[in-house]
Amino acid sequence: MQLELGKIKIEDIQFAAETKVFDSTLFINQEELLEIIGEDSRITNINLDIVHPGDSVRIIPVKDVIEPRVKVKGPGGVFPGFISSEEMVGSGRTHVLKGAAVVTTGEIVGFQEGIIDMSGPGAEYTPFSRFHNLVVDCDVKENIKQHEHEEILRMVGLKTASYLGKAAKDVEPDELETYEHKPFVEAAADYPSLPKVGYVYMLQSQGLLHDTYVYGVDAKEILPTLMSPTEIMDGAILSGNCVSACDKNATYVHQNNPVIEELYKYHGEKYNFMGVIITNENVTLADKERSSNFTAKLAEMLGLDAAVVSEEGFGNPDADLIMNSKKLAAKGIKTVLITDEYAGRDGASQSLADADPSADAVVTAGNANEVITLPPMEKVIGHQNFADVIAGGFDGSLEADGSISVEIQAITGSTNELGFNNLTARIY
Amino acid sequence: MKDLVIITNNPKIKEKFEELKIDFVDNLSDVYSKSRDLVHQDWKLMSHPLAGSVKPAQNPYRSIILAPTKKLDFYSLNTIENAIQKLNQFKKDHKKREYSQKIKEDYQVIDLTLINSALKN
Amino acid sequence: MLEGKKTAILGDRDGIPGPDMSNKLKIVHYLNQFFGQIGGEDKAGIPPRREDGPIGPGAALNNSLGEDAEIVNTIICGDTFFNENLEESKSEIKKMLKAINPDLLIAGPAFNAGRYGVACGTVAEIAKTELGIDVVSGIYPENPGYEMFKQYAYFVETSDSAAGMRSAIPDMIKIVKSYIDKNGELGSPEEEGYMPRGIRKNIFAEERGAARAIKMMLKKLEGEDFETEYPMPVFDRVDPVDPIKDMPKTKVALVTSGGIVPKGNPDHIESSSASKYGEYSLEGVMDLDEENYETAHGGYDPVCANKDADRVLPVDVMRDLEKEGVIGELHNKFYTTVGNGTSVANAKAYAQEIAENLLADGVQAVILTST
């Protein structure tokens, strides 16, 4: 499987008469876009806003962030199982509008989370402040149930991203990257003297608002399985998760999974990157046992010498993380875990809800309980009053002047457990 | 299935699972302490006591499924004790407030779907 | 933090006399009766008192701080008083600190003095959590005051006795100076020279997490040293032995780290950092009474233990069980030491010897009591 990612640099977004990319600017025909994404009769209103890095803008509550892309060559299409068919992705050529993103916002539940500040101290904590964002603020009819509401917003986001992506179809990319993943037997034969390494990719899968989709399948229904890294780079996994803003994996980070990108860097030189095992984080302990058993077994079948394991969420997933750690270590596989911490506002509490001596190599994305004060912004897109009930928010968090004191767990993507950011925590 | 018990303070669980054994308690802390008591009486956890990404103490509703077993299940004991510790940590920083009826119901729905997803498997 | 503190002082200045009209950092020093130059163990019962200016080691601290800072008051409390009247001491010292309203508290150094270390730690906890005052102190790493209170103070590492004062003072001054230079925002333990407080703090690393993970994995693969970013809590797990099948035929011994000794403490087991353990006969002893037994332990309120030592070493109940036939017999000797500040290495060595003696005497089960 060989995937070419053609990256088209986007340095500005503007509304215009025609949707197109010209001279690193993405022009959007607002009316045409609204017609396509507003077709669902359950939607009552959609507002579109363009925001840029450095703008005095706060977006709240954020549901998902998506990178606009288009399939140019080869099988399948974007967002398989939702926008495109169930055809396998991960080969051929895909064009990416690099530097642009679609941000969806809307009130699904009363305690909705997720802040993106485009400037100020909060902007340093969210990776999405670095992009030119098209914000889609969507309202639905009053009697719509929570799960239906989530689905509407998810689809609006995906439709918007795929509509914008089409503008990149005939544009010459600024950069062309090629990634290859061979059949396992061939891959193993390519570098017989190098250690074999893999990636265990844990997907949030606990139920309503905690879902992840693989080719359109709810990840809680899967047994752990093998995937080519190029499939994930080509959008096979996407987010239906809107709880826990700081460490939920937005669709954008699935599309740009940093562990996969980094693993490719030394592939063929220092190790042989064999592939990805995706697994889930279900509610029952029996599921956890089964999935971690399966994960360790697949790792053994691949002949892995080492693996990186990434987590999504906190609490319940800590149990999955530790089970994976124990069982991989028991098979003699050298394991590194990526997690984040909930060590309390004072940083003095136990960080995880589970622990094991096998977890001796851990990368942390920071303490999500640390408190930050976000100054007022000139413009707020969405619903600022959510700051008061947002996870990590507390009474009085929203000041009269519009500043907010919150734990960084309220900031979208701040402690991403795929290692997307530079934030970490140390013992002081 | 009929051996299961759900310890809960979520009224929606009571409505939805009439055929199951429900032990309805008054508050969040009681859900955890009652579950811990049962673990000491040879019940084991079927669902994780920190299920869901809504942080402990933030969601005022919680349901935990247990099943009888033959002897003390040490993993369950460890897990429920860790969960109680986490709950207390989050409680310390969480200022209690009165949620609106809509938000209460949203929290109940979240807890309900987590339990639903557990029972389906 | 420091900036906030200064504003608060300005607001509160009314009614507080003092020459400090500059930006000098206002420091309070906490000492025990010994370093406060009141007296030795015989003066350990004095309640908290507030003195003007620096005293004892405070003088050296104050001189080195020069124009940047000043020890305005010293609070002195006897170690015994502090430990036996914990709540009263805490509220009294809190009141004093509140009235003085310092920018920083210095406590000790306490070296390996167990009760003093715990007192310094407790005062640090009050200052930090209840009044928002940062604390600098010095302590021997095995002093229980460090493990119990490390999150509340910047503790520099000291030697185990006051002979280490000469290096402890400059180390503490270095922290205070850095605290002033950095406006109260101290860097990491390695940068500044204090012992880790166990507090997790966020920083931005040079590389993203995924890149750090791959590098850590490579080191682990190649067998090189690597440093985890989150050390898991340490478990010192002991596998449980098989259950006792026949209690009525079992010889049971009592062993304690609660310091129960025959009245007068004949072997002079120390009240903290015990350098020995004792072996005493229980021949014909049915009950530990006030006339004949007491505790040597200096780390807890001894009133209840002195009144009835069975509360720590339950000889009376064991004799009942012996009579009822629940156990075979109670071993006719007990072993005792003081756990307060005793190093793990020493404790292991004592345990080894005690276990060998018990085995030689045919003991099949032991009840360990602590405090």
TrEMBL record, chain A:
The keyword Amino-acid biosynthesis does not apply. The active site is at residue 242. InterPro entries: Gly/sarc/bet_Rdtase_B_asu/bsu, Gly_reductase_pB_sua/b. It holds the Pfam family Gly_reductase. The modification Pyruvic acid (Cys) is found at residue 242. It comes from the Bacteria. Keywords: Pyruvate, Schiff base. One of its GO terms (molecular function) is oxidoreductase activity, acting on X-H and Y-H to form an X-Y bond, with a disulfide as acceptor. The keyword Oxidoreductase does not apply. This is Glycine reductase.
Automatic annotation (TrEMBL), chain B:
This is GrdX protein. It comes from Halanaerobium congolense. The lineage of its organism: Bacteria, Bacillati, Bacillota, Clostridia, Halanaerobiales.
From TrEMBL, chain C:
InterPro entries: Various_sel_PB. Pfam families: GRDB (PF07355). It comes from the Bacteria. The keyword Oxidoreductase applies. Keywords: Oxidoreductase, Selenocysteine. GO terms for molecular function: oxidoreductase activity, acting on X-H and Y-H to form an X-Y bond, with a disulfide as acceptor. This is Glycine reductase.
